[in-house]
Amino acid sequence: MNNVRPKLTMLTEEQIREVHDQTLTLLETIGVRVDSPSALEMLKNRVGSSMVNERTVRFPRELVEWAIKVAPRQIQMYDRRGNLRFTIGGTEDRTRFGIGVTALYYQEPHNDTPVLFERKHMRDMVRLGNKLPNYDMVSTVGIVRDVPEHLTDVYGSLEHFVNGTKPMVLLCSDEHKFNDVMEMFELLHGDLGEKPFIIPYFNPVSPLVMNEGTVDKMKVAIERGLPVIISNYSMSGATTPITPAGTIAVLLAELLAGLVIGQLYKEGAPMLLGMLPVYFDMKTLMNFYDPQSILVNIACSEMMAFYGIPHCGTSGSGTGWGMDLLAAETYWMNTLTFSFTKGGLAPFVGDTLGSKAISPLTFIYCNEIIDQTLRLSSGFQLDSASIGLSEIEKVGPGKSFVSAPTTLKKYKTGYYVNPIFQRWSMEKWQQAGQPHVQKVLSEYAIEYMKDMPAPEDHDELLAKGEEFISKLGKS
């Protein structure tokens, strides 16, 4: 077996060590603001009161190095049935993809019209993510808007839980409801930490703030034995320096501060670190992905590989007005480059319109992007059997390989076939009425979504969850 694979590298070993050193200097001299009173008290005891000025904590180098050393190098993720689905981290890791974005709107598949995101949309999109084969997980897809506002996270998380079995990346917008969601999941499932299938996702606030909600929710998750994601969303030129190098230093400092706090809560707690770097357009007041953003994501993956810490990166999302050319260019660029790195999670595929909306068309189209990029990044076999000199000799000069044994064996599986778009000649396309690709994609998606059965335990779990929420609403 001699598999050749394309690789994408960016930083030299010397540059990686320079970034690391500069980040440790930032943490030791500038520090990070910590808004959680309990975490602040813990840090005073561990780093010394001289390193704490009001809420700003400076982190000694040796403490950061300790946290990097004790954090797990690999994290095993299971599905809701207890089956091992994949391992994050390690030399054989590849990029794993998930749908979701915490959208406020849902784009109708027949005309792209945004409507308020409701429970039925959460139900359908979770089932769609579970059906599409190239997604490894389903992240929180949206914020349900047809329930009491104070119960949004609980109802949304219930639909997330009962409508699929793939690993879940969980986002809770209301920090006060996170523990309720954990208790509901324990009621429905039992011990969450034994074979973890849930990865809670938390954001620091750039620049250099570990906000109270993030830190306290992280503690709740770690105490339950769950792996957690610390990922920062930045806007270069606004919440981080406009230079990629400055952005990397600030974001990496936040991630390492979160790592230290997590390891102080529980040494050996499984954690993933990563960045969502975008730019801020001062004319339109919009954020957007740029090729430089993709480079920051690659650099972060290499820093995490250097640390031996599992990586959670960007999905390159949010640019389009639906599943259009704008969306496609960013999804392709991010998915392709990320697949050539040392691996990690890309958990947020599917959002559009500045991340305010999600579209099932995007989920379905990006499923094919992922398929092709994984085929590309997996390379091919380069050995004597694959070259097949004996078969080449039998066919001989000037003849065809159409009926060669290897062709007959592999022609159905040896190359990519798009299930959405046919390989038509110009004449065939004209005969079909010259359909636009957007129309073809829309019709395919609508038909595909007609068959999305619920898990067999859906009704039972939904009833238990509804009862839990009913009691919660009365308390």
Structural description of this entry:
- By secondary structure, the chain is of the alpha/beta class.
- It has a domain at 383-410.
- The protein is 44% helix and 16% strand.
- It is built from 17 helices and 20 strands.
- The strands form five sheets. An eight-stranded mixed beta sheet has the order 16-15-14-12-11-10-7-17. The chain has a four-stranded mixed beta sheet with strand order 3-4-2-13. It has a four-stranded mixed beta sheet with strand order 9-8-19-18.
- A hairpin with a 2-residue loop joins strand 3 and strand 4 (56-57).
- Helix 9 (291-307) packs parallel to helix 10 (325-339).
- The radius of gyration is 24 Å and the shape is globular.
- The N and C termini lie far apart (62 Å).
- The mean pLDDT is 94.
Number of strands: 20
Strand order of the largest sheet: 16-15-14-12-11-10-7-17
What class, by secondary structure content? alpha/beta
State the helical fraction.
40-55%
Q: Strand content of the residues, in percent? A: 15-25%
Rg over CA atoms, rounded to whole Å, is 24 Å
Number of helices: 17
Low confidence ranges: none
Overall mean confidence score, pLDDT: 94
Molecular shape: globular
Largest sheet: 8 strands, mixed
Distance between the termini: 62 Å
Short description:
The protein is α/β, with parallel strands linked by helices. It contains 17 helices and 20 strands.
List the keywords.
4-stranded mixed beta sheet; 44% helix; alpha/beta; 20 strands; 16% strand; 475 residues; single chain; 17 helices; globular
